[in-house]
Amino acid sequence: MNSYHHTHSRSTVALLSIALLALSAISELPRVVSSAASLPLARPLAQAINPNPPASPVKLIFIHHSCGEYWLEDVGSSDYSGGLGVALRDNNYFVSDTNYGWGPDSIGDNTDIGHWWTWFRGPDSTTYLGALYTEYDQHSWYSRLDTDPGGENEIVMFKSCFPNSNLEGNPGDPPATDPNPLRGQDVWSGYHTVANAKGIYNDLLTYFATRQERLFIVITAPPVTDDTYAANARAFNTWLVNDWLDGYPHSNVAVFDFYNVLTHPNNHHRVYSESIQYVTSNGDGTLYYPGPDGSHPSAAGNQKARNEFVPLLNVYYNRWKSGVAPSLTLTAPTGSTIWPISSQQQIRWTTIGAISHVNLDYSTDGFATSHDIATSVVNTGCYTWTTPATPSTSVQVRVADAASPATIYATSAAFTLYVDHYYIYLPAVLRDYHTWDAYYEENDHWLDAYGPLVSGKAYLAYPDDTDDYYCFVLSAPATVTVSVADFAPTSTNGTVMLYGPAVENERGNLIDYYGPPGDSSMSLGPHSLGPGKYYIRVNTAKGHSTTQLYRLTVTY
Questions:
Q1: Which pLDDT tens digit goes with each residue over 75-98?
Q2: pLDDT score for 489
Q3: Can you tell me the distance from the alpha carbon of 444 to that of 435, in angstroms, rounded to the nearest whole number?
Q4: Helix or strand or coil: residue 445?
Q5: CB atoms within 10 A of CB 178
Q6: Counting C-beta atoms within 10 Å of the first and last residue's C-beta, which end of the chain has fewer, N or C?
Q7: What are phi and psi of 15, to 5 degrees?
Q8: Nearest to 161 by CA among 214, 108, 206, 120
Q9: Which secondary structure element, helix H or strand E, spans residue 264, and what is its range?
Q10: Other C-beta atoms within 10 Å of 9: how many?
């Protein structure tokens, strides 16, 4: 239908159009409400987020009805014109499209969610797709490149019309499995539910995985002005962006949330600050930009969607053409990791493909809730993390592509954060009270020794009197080392001693002691000791401090 064919030479106008898209996006930035990191726009975009147009023309086919027609339409043609055709042209895409009445069996009439199964999985799908991949004409009013670059269509965009946002069911319904009654059915069939719609899109992945030579772009259905099913539409489209492609191993499928962009000026799905920004928290889920008929998006809404979509399409195209599906693998921590609380530890991971920036977070409940570690940091393969102060045996760490955190990520097995020191609190009345012939606090004598001590853990105490006794038990022969650090600098004649093995109520023989006394750091061993109970005596003599904790550690 060449009567629709508006051509334009691709010259300096192309560069101006790209610049206008960028300026339009920047003009909205002060109104953005987002959790995304605010990074300087002047920073160069990295390879993983490459919004540059293809170097040579790429053939693209768009399956749509009236909303898509208006979106493609050259600006100024009507009150609905989105100018998408010109923007795609100026980004080096040769665009063709289908519309009502197109193709074998007039399959172009059928673009509801249930119909996508007919297009891509049904018994006549080979016929329909053969015609689609070789359709190079226009069936709507828009400008495109003058010259067909040859070959088949590489990119397939497909979109359902706004009635498809009236999904019944509940927002959290899981995808339907066989038999799915929505297959081949329209939006009015009674089967148009959240669960069945999710099931249809899951069906499509089976076909898409066999056609990695093509890039498939899902354009979500635009919103309606009635809020009856707004919560369902919001949940379904968010599922498409964040969850649908979980586990899909290829880079030839992507989603643009046309619905979301049209629900509020501050909702976005776009390239922003070296990431793919997805903001959904504003508005009530209905059409914010109604055109004169009250149903189709207005020119303002369509142009906002155009500005956000085209750079994102370039990102999806460049990622697909890289030939590598980006992935991340965590190497540390692992399920056997045991780290002290409030300590600095290295999170490590490996990367396949182009991922320039990553997000890191952790959870103690299987990511039902999570806590940020770092957001949009340069991907170096490691990050120094100060572990939280709360011990847990169910800690998990996650690293995610900052551009696609919901679909490209790696999660560790549950590991342990433990308390690596214990405070030994003494009664305040006994501080600074000492005597040579009686003991008043619980570890002044070996019969009241604190313990048994755990190997490798630090114990903190004040040297508040003459002696502090500790004990540990060996169940088998072991090599033992005792160390005291941060000993009070005024304890000029303090020392540490090791006794054992205990015999009944006696502490046993003196095995070792540290001398000369008075150092702030003291150690004994290593000593090869047999099974039994042993005592450590920290002796402060008469010169001691009540303001500085010392740290005692025994390893065996």
A1: 999 999 999 999 999 999 999 999
A2: 53
A3: 10
A4: coil
A5: 7
A6: N
A7: -65, -40
A8: 108
A9: none
A10: 9
